[in-house]
Amino acid sequence: MITVHHLNNSRSQRVLWMLEELEVPYQIKRYQRESTMLAPDALKKVHPLGKSPVITDENRVIAESGAILEYLAERYDAENRLKLNDEDERLQSRYWLHYAEGSLMPLLVMKLIFSRMGKPPVPWLLRPIGNAFGKGVQKGYLDKQLATHREFIEQHLASHAWFAGEQFSIADVQMSFPIQALTARGGAANSPAIQAWLAKVQNRAAWQRALQQGGEVKLD
């Protein structure tokens, strides 16, 4: 049976969602973040990098969100629930699968780091300087970059039902975490297409089952 090594408030939530969409049996081994927000060392016993998500299936250890989602789709989507027959949609799905972690998430992680430079574990004497520096980087660089990405995604979703096109795919599963983070850290108040997509996602029965299994994800 598949084991999902699940870290709270992490990308592994979308692996649970994928498994629920495919209705594949799995079990969860839970890990809690340290006070530093880093993953516990126990995860290094599963994979040398000690990161989540990671799954074990038979004798295989598979890490990285995109690789896990592709593996699950290829091995367990016997009913072709997420299969895309249109070549253009397959290309779109592949693009967004890689865009999520290659282009968008690095900016969102930087946003999180710089927003916390005035908070523990930064030494209290350095917090005023860290806070000012963090706000400066966000205003001068990160917020502008995220606004560009937000508009790019908004324009795409304004003319497509799902990220690959008219059909739900693993691209939507992959993009769910950065969209949640973008909404929490970058704002999407003026992005109705993004909000509509997220509402559709959150209304899916598989999404709700995954939340029951993995717990609520808090990214603000």
Automatic annotation (TrEMBL):
The keyword NAD does not apply. Pfam families: GST_C, GST_N_2. It catalyses: RX + glutathione = an S-substituted glutathione + a halide anion + H(+). Its EC number is 2.5.1.18. The keyword Thylakoid does not apply. GO terms for molecular function: glutathione transferase activity; peroxidase activity. Residues 86-220 form the GST C-terminal domain. Residues 1-80 form the GST N-terminal domain. It is an enzyme of class 2 (transferase). InterPro entries: Glutathione-S-Trfase_C-like (IPR010987), Glutathione-S-Trfase_C_sf (IPR036282), Glutathione_S-Trfase (IPR040079), Glutathione_S-Trfase_N (IPR004045), GST_C (IPR004046), Thioredoxin-like_sf (IPR036249). GO terms for cellular component: cytoplasm. Keywords: Transferase. This is glutathione transferase. The lineage of its organism: Bacteria, Pseudomonadati, Pseudomonadota, Gammaproteobacteria, Enterobacterales.
